[in-house]
Structure formats: structure tokens, C-alpha cells
């Protein structure tokens, strides 16, 4: 029995509870990750942000984190454990931690919480998000220019507003260049399963797509695209290493600046619950270098990026109809953030049925 | 290459690790030991296979490393449950947790590296058979091994004396012991065979399926393998069929989505599991056959009286 306990204890330590050596004066800024900090995608991007934060404040803070926390009831325990261990601020970095975060926050009114990509907040729960759809619009433009067949494959995770918004933005961008552009969507119903993501990529390529984009977290689809000789877009982190001749660009999440800003607010005592939604212009996301494409496509992408940064171009600018044919945005109208954050419909031109 | 062929190729890749891992567990369980650590052994095999391949440049060394690592790791389970008579369920779960943690630690320097893919071995003449040739005879070594192991295990369990002894131990370790059969020694070997197979399945993940290392890359396949053993009512051929059925339904649901046939994706994602449950119900309607095939001492500790 002793052996088992030992085994469990070792593994618990290895799994990644960076138990802090409790220096009294260091403020604890804590992180909850849904995946492993080396997943090459979503969670890695958050961890790079955490490292930037640690480097910025040095000894003044500690940044313990919990990895591989499943979304659901377990998340509540993990978040509560962090709150109990004396964290001043807890970042919960996945959509599925939303309800758990709000629930734990009610029990610990003195601890501050920040939930990524969600829409529920409270007096001590702020939300923060990145306008990924800006990047997806640019990817759509590139896809329409680069695809010979006019069909792209889209590996989606779960039908939440975040992902639906991404598909709409990608399709809208592509169809602004080629109105007949089609997108085939596969819902993998997972964020992280290299095997399944690779299977989905193979299925899409076997059905004739020649551009691949993904809203799941591993580099497996990029690898399949490289093997089959088509082009693809990376997700959350720069995935150029998985496909040096394959990646066109990637949406790179750069959370560090935000984490530094919010931690500073906690240290100064000026932290307020806010709902922050930053974009390309704020540097919370950046585009990986535009590679493996001709100069004119690169120029088009760079121009679109510059226009989005300056506010001249909003990816969701009318006229846009919904998939069912009803009007959504009139000519020249721009979508409000509320509609985007709760997006549960496809726009016209998406050739897929949205799972309910 | 036609679409059917493409689908079947993907199915083979997806089913092979399931078949391998569950085949090993089948032998372990036939000897009366329940090892819930398949996921942990698999992921350990995956990381060691990847590391050894990177170090030597040869995926064949990687395969050997995966097998050896799985077997050694299962030895830990064997020592705890067979020698120290610890609870098998708890120890198996601990093995999974330990494996996931340790593999993450070992694998940290390998994250993001592009792997070396195990190349297919083309079997002359047979590979030229239309349709079947490219599917079955232009595959990698691990696929050939998986089929050979199913045939071999089936022969061993039901045609050889040693297999008969192993099944006897699984059915009643007390009686087997009284007959002078080495219960503990046989169980050690069965556990190690299970570990070796899980390690090989892991090597398939990091060398063939997705030639890269990412933490937790087995993503629950060890648990599916465990379920498959019950699904197959502890019989190797049924297990092969079950693994491929599961793989086929998983892959076709992806294709169905890409075709846009308009069935909710959540339903399609659940389909492989639903199909497995339905078949399980159908084949287990005969209670007697099920009872005959279930190892009666499964999960029960054995302490020889001296």
C-alpha cells in the first residue's frame, strides 16, 4: 500500500502542481490549464504568457499552475484548491472552466479570477478573450487565393460561439475573394486528441480539400497536411516546425502582455472585474510569418492585417445574411460584440449544418 | 486511390493500436489479472519509442524500446499486485496516472520535434493484388505484427498446453495451484506480455499514427482497449473484429461529416461507442457462452498457502 501511495504522490507531483515554496511576500498568480503546457498549441501559448509574467515581476510573484485539468466537475476542485492555497489571482484558461470558475469565485470573494473566452462574470470574475476571428478572416483570404479546387477543410472542436465565429469569419473572408469557395467542416468533439485530429485531416484530404485549417490544439493535422503535400494554417502557436513547407500562417496567441497588465493591477490594488476582448491591434494575437505563398498573396494578407489593426476593416461587415436566408447585417453595418460572443448561427455560404 | 481504399487505410491505422493493446490485456486477463494501467503503459511505450527513435534514427530500435518499456513498466504492476498482493484495480489506476505523469516528464524535450515515420514494408507479389494489395501488404511492421499476434495468441490460448494452463489459472487459481502449475510465475509472464503489447501499441502512436510526441497522446485509447477485451468476451478473433469495427465507425463518422449528410456531429461522435455497446448486447445474449469465456478468478488476489 505504501508503494501505491508513493506512486500516487510522485505522479501527482509530476503531473505538475508546482508547489510553491511559500515565500510570504511573493504574490501568487495562479493558472489552470486544460492541456499540458507543452501541447504545442493552446495551453503552451498560455504558459509562454505565464513565463513572460514571471520574468517581468521576478521575485515579487509566484506563478503556480495546474496542467491537464479536465473541464467539468474536476475543474471546480482544481480551481478551489488554487484559491485555498492563497492565490491572489487565478487565470482559468479554457472555455469549459466557466461555470466552475464562477462557482468557486462566489466562495472566495477575496480572490480574483479571470476566465478566458467565457461570457459569465462576477464582482471578482473578469473575462478576457482574443479576437481570433480577425486572424481567421485573413486566413480565409489566403485560402481563397491559394486553393486550386476552391475547397478548404476545417477541423472544429466544439460548437461553441468561439468556434462558430471562427468558421463564419474564415468563410466570409474566403468568399469575399471567391464567392463559390466551399468549406468542409468536421467536428472532432475534442480539443486534444492527436490521433483523431489526424484522422479528421485525412478524411478531409481524401474528400478533396487542398487547404486545411484547424480549431483543435495539436500539430497532428499540420503533420498530415505536410505528408499529403497540401497547405495548412496553424492554431494558437506557430506550428512552422511541424510543417516548414506547409504552414501558410498561424494565429499565435500572445497572452503575456495581458497577464502582466492584470497582475500589475492586482499588485497596485486597482484590479476591477472587466470584460476584455482585445484583438490584433492590442497584440493579444499575432499572425505567424506569411510563408509558402506567392508575394501577391502575402501582400494581400499583410494589407488586410494592417486594415484590421487600424480599425478600417471589421471582418464582420455587411451585407451578410444568415445561413437560413434571413438578414443579419445590412450593407456597411458592423456586428456588435454581443452577437459575436453568443454566435450560434452560420452565415450564408457555410456548407455545413451547425450542431445544436 | 479510391475513397473506399483511403477510408480503409485510415481505419487500419486507427484500429491497430486498439487491437494490440487489447490483445495484451486479453492475455493478462485470461490469466486472472485485471490491469487497468493499459493507458499508462501505452503512453510510456509511445514516449520511449519516440525518444529511442530520435536518439538512434531508427524506428525499429524505437519499436524495441516501446516493447521493452511497456514490459518493464508492467513489471512494477506485477510486483505490487502479485508479490505484494496489492489491490489490482487501485494499482492499475495508479499505473495509468504514473505513466501519464512520467511520460510527460520524459517527453518534455521531444515536444514539437518532427518524428521519423516508420516506413511501410512492401511484400512482393502480394502487394500487386488489386485493392487488397495496397491495403494489407503495403503496411508497416507494426500492422503485420498485430495480425500475427492475434493468430499467435489464439493458437496459444486454445491449441497449446501452456495456453490451457494459463486459462486454468484464470478460471481457478486455487485448483491450478493444487495441480502444481506455477500461478504467480505464469501471471508475471502474462502481465509482462500485456505490458509489451501496450508498449508496442504506444510505439505505433508515436511512430506511425502521428509521428510526433505530445503529452497524453494516447488520449484514452487504453481505456477503449480495456472495453474491447470485454466486448470480445476474451476471444482474440472477436477482439480483432471489435477493434476494426470501432475504428471503422470512428473514421466513417468523420467522412460522413465532411460529406455533410446533416446528422448531428455529437451523435456521430458517440456512434463508435453506441455500436460497440449494441454488438456487446447482441453477442452476450447467451449467458452460458459468456460465463464460459469470462476468467472466473479475474481480479482476485492469490496467496499460495505454504
From TrEMBL, chain A:
CDD domains tied to this protein: PBP1_BMP-like
Sequence ranges assigned to domain ABC transporter substrate-binding protein PnrA-like in this UniProt record: 27-307
Signal peptide (residue range): 1-23
Protein name per UniProt: BMP family ABC transporter substrate-binding protein
Keywords: Signal
The organism of origin for this protein: Shinella lacus
TrEMBL record, chain B:
Disulfide bond is among the record's keywords: no
Keywords: Cell membrane, Membrane, Transmembrane, Transmembrane helix
Membrane topology annotation: Multi-pass membrane protein
Principal location listed in the UniProt entry: membrane
Compartments, record wording: Cell membrane
Top-level taxon: Bacteria
Residue stretches spanning the membrane: 31-53, 60-82, 88-106, 141-158, 188-209, 267-283
Protein name, per record: ABC transporter permease
Amino acid at each position: 500500500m505504501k508503494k501505491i501511495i508513493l506512486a500516487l504522490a510522485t505522479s501527482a507531483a509530476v503531473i505538475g502542481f508546482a508547489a510553491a515554496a511559500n515565500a510570504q511576500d511573493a504574490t501568487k498568480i495562479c493558472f489552470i490549464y486544460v492541456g499540458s503546457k507543452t501541447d504545442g498549441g493552446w495551453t503552451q501559448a498560455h504558459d509562454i504568457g505565464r513565463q513572460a509574467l514571471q520574468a517581468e515581476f521576478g521575485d515579487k510573484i509566484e506563478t503556480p499552475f495546474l496542467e491537464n485539468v479536465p473541464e467539468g466537475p474536476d475543474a471546480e476542485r482544481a480551481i478551489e484548491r488554487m484559491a485555498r492555497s492563497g492565490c491572489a489571482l487565478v487565470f482559468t484558461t479554457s472555455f469549459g472552466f466557466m461555470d466552475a470558475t464562477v462557482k468557486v469565485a462566489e466562495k472566495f470573494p477575496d480572490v480574483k479570477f479571470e476566465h478566458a473566452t467565457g461570457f459569465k462574470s462576477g464582482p471578482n470574475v473578469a473575462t478576457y478573450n482574443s479576437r481570433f476571428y480577425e486572424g481567421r478572416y485573413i486566413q480565409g483570404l489566403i485560402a481563397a487565393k491559394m486553393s486550386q479546387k476552391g475547397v478548404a477543410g476545417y477541423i472544429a472542436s466544439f460548437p461553441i460561439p468561439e468556434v462558430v465565429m471562427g468558421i463564419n469569419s474564415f468563410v466570409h473572408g474566403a468568399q469575399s475573394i471567391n464567392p463559390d469557395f466551399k468549406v468542409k467542416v468536421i467536428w472532432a468533439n475534442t480539443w486534444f486528441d492527436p490521433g483523431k485530429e489526424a484522422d479528421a485531416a485525412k478524411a478531409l484530404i481524401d474528400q478533396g480539400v487542398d487547404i486545411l485549417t484547424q480549431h483543435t490544439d495539436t500539430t497532428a493535422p499540420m503533420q498530415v497536411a505536410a505528408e499529403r503535400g497540401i497547405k495548412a494554417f496553424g492554431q494558437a502557436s506557430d506550428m512552422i516546425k511541424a510543417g516548414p513547407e506547409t504552414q501558410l500562417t498561424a494565429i499565435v496567441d500572445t497572452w503575456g502582455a495581458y497577464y502582466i497588465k492584470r497582475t500589475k493591477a492586482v499588485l497596485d490594488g486597482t484590479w476591477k472585474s472587466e470584460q476584455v476582448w482585445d484583438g490584433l491591434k492590442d497584440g493579444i494575437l499575432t499572425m505567424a510569418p506569411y510563408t509558402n505563398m506567392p508575394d501577391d498573396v502575402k501582400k494581400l494578407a499583410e494589407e488586410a492585417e494592417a486594415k484590421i489593426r487600424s480599425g478600417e476593416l471589421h471582418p464582420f461587415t455587411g451585407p451578410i445574411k444568415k445561413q437560413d436566408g434571413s438578414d443579419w447585417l445590412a450593407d456597411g453595418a458592423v456586428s456588435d460584440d454581443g452577437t459575436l460572443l453568443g454566435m450560434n448561427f452560420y452565415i450564408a455560404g457555410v456548407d455545413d449544418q451547425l450542431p445544436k | 486511390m479510391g475513397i473506399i481504399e483511403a477510408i480503409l487505410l485510415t481505419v487500419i491505422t486507427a484500429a491497430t493500436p486498439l487491437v494490440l493493446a487489447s490483445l495484451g490485456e486479453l492475455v493478462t486477463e485470461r490469466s486472472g489479472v485485471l490491469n487497468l494501467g493499459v493507458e499508462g503503459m501505452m503512453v510510456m511505450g509511445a514516449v520511449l519509442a519516440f525518444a529511442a527513435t530520435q536518439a538512434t534514427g531508427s524506428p525499429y530500435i524505437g519499436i524495441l524500446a516501446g516493447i521493452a518499456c511497456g514490459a518493464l513498466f508492467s513489471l512494477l504492476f506485477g510486483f505490487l499486485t502479485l508479490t505484494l498482493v496489492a489491490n489490482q484495480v487501485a494499482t492499475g489506476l495508479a499505473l495509468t496516472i504514473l505513466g501519464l505523469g512520467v511520460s510527460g516528464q520524459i517527453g518534455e524535450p521531444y515536444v514539437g520535434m518532427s518524428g521519423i515515420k516508420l516506413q511501410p514494408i512492401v511484400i512482393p507479389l502480394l502487394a500487386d493484388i488489386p485493392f487488397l494489395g495496397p491495403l494489407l501488404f503495403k503496411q508497416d511492421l507494426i500492422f503485420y505484427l498485430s495480425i500475427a499476434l492475434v493468430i499467435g495468441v489464439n493458437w496459444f490460448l486454445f491449441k497449446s498446453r501452456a495456453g490451457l494452463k494459463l486459462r486454468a489459472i484464470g478460471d481457478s487459481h486455487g485448483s491450478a495451484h493444487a495441480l502444481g502449475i506455477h500461478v504467480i510465475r505464469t501471471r508475471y509472464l502474462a502481465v509482462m506480455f500485456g505490458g509489451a503489447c501496450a508498449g508496442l501499441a504506444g510505439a505505433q502512436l508515436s511512430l506511425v499514427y502521428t509521428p510526433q510526441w505530445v503529452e497524453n497522446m494516447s488520449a484514452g485509447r487504453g481505456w477503449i482497449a480495456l472495453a474491447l477485451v470485454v466486448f470480445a468476451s476474451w476471444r482474440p478473433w472477436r477482439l480483432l473484429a471489435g477493434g476494426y469495427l470501432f475504428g471503422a465507425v470512428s473514421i466513417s463518422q468523420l467522412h460522413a461529416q465532411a460529406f455533410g449528410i446533416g446528422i448531428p456531429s455529437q451523435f456521430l461522435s458517440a456512434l463508435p461507442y453506441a455500436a460497440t455497446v449494441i454488438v456487446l448486447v447482441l453477442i452476450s445474449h447467451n449467458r452460458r457462452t459468456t460465463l464460459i469465456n469470462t476468467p472466473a478468478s479475474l481480479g482476485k488476489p492469490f496467496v499460495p498457502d505454504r
